[in-house]
Amino acid sequence: MSLPSAVHELEFSHGSTYGPEEAAAIAAVLADSAPSCGPRVKEFEVAFAAYCGAGFGLAVTSATAGLDLALASAGVGPGDEVITTPITWVSSANAAAKLGAKVVFADVDPHTLNLDPASVAALITPRTKVILPVHLYGQCCDMDALSALARPRGILLIDDCAHTAGAEYKGRKTGSLADISVFSFHQQKNMVTLGEGGMITTNDPALFQSMLGLRSLCCRSYDPKGKYLAFDDTHPPMGKRYWHLDFDDLGGNFRMTEVQAAVGLVQLRKLDAMNQRRIEIAGMYSCRLSRLRGFRPLAVSPWGKHVFHIFGVLIEDSFPLDKEEFMWRMYAEHRIKVWSHYMPVHLTTAYRKRGHGPGECPVAESLFERYVSLPIHPRLTQEGIDYLCSTIEALAS
Asked: For the domain bounded by 5-13+271-396, which CATH number is listed?
């Protein structure tokens, strides 16, 4: 069977795109001997926080690291409970579990797969420390409803924004909707920083200072008389006076490099245009595929801007193929890589070992048998879009 020239676009199903601007930014950092966390990182943090409408930004090695820092700075520990969604990358839950907290999985909305506030409300106890929504696939959860549950009870909201750089909720960008927000710049995301990377945003100066310390081994600078001067993420300034370092807690090294930040600054300038292309592609997918019997694109909530990190669909019983057969034939016969984002976390081996299992989140468990993610990224051409849609239309018939 002859495959179209654009098929390679559909074998790599997600991610951003690089160009000569990123290459020039990398070359400039190499000319400076490619340092670690320095002025470009700070510039990236300030620019990204401003883009989101947040007071502070903190660049980190990954969203996983960002979630770890966020939960630690929130004071989560043994005896606490953290409510989150089962349909997410496992890092969302792991950040709480690694600190000894109990992870409580709330169920999801059957139309969007986002966290269901009604399910969250039923699970809140006096031990609930954090509600951790995940803005899934590129659109926001119902943050007004979640805030109404959290704020009066003194529960922190920490939102996982790994899929939603540039997304909006009622006119406000993600990164400004919760006490702490965590973004991913992994190679599959809407904007990327050379394979890995992440950003934390917050408006709380105390939380920011705590996360800043934990990011870099809780290292502080002191003068010769022991007077505290400042956190220092890299090296203390050396002048005529001697400075020394101390470590006031057990932190880690989660610093972003200068070369990643340089690329991140370029990607941030491109983000709105790349997201607009995703929205256009999603519109073409929806127009053609929503006509098919038993093949239903996930709903788009009316309250915000969906940036389509992932284009999700539900395969109903009336579709000729079940999920597994559809995924297999799409790739084996047509070289189109479709995914299942994600296995419900409470059904994974790691969480079954911790007492979780079937029956906890019946909506999520039922939908797992039906949801599929189609390739979407700004590199897709019209030929690639037509090939994907025509392939699914043929399978549907």
From this structure: 3.90.1150.10
Residue 203, burial from CB neighbour count under 10 angstroms (0-12, 13-18, 19+): middle
- pLDDT tens-digit profile of 248-263? 788 889 999 999 999 9
Distance CA 300, CA 172 (A): 17
315-343 per-position pLDDT tens digit: 999 999 999 999 999 999 999 999 999 99
Predicted model pTM: 0.94
Q: Give the 3-state secondary structure of residue 321.
A: coil
Using a 10 angstrom Cβ sphere, with 0-12 exposed, 13-18 middle and 19 or more buried, the burial of residue 272 is exposed
Contacts of 41 (CB under 8 A, 6+ apart): 59, 255, 256, 257, 258, 261
Sign of CA dihedral 336, 337, 342, 343: positive
C-alpha to C-alpha distance for 149 and 83, rounded to whole angstroms: 12
CATH code for residues 20-217+247-262: 3.40.640.10
CATH 3.40.640.10 residue window(s) in the chain: 20-217+247-262
Kind and range of the H or E element at 157? strand 156-160
What is the set of active-site residues?
189
Give me the residue label for tokens 């620019």. 47
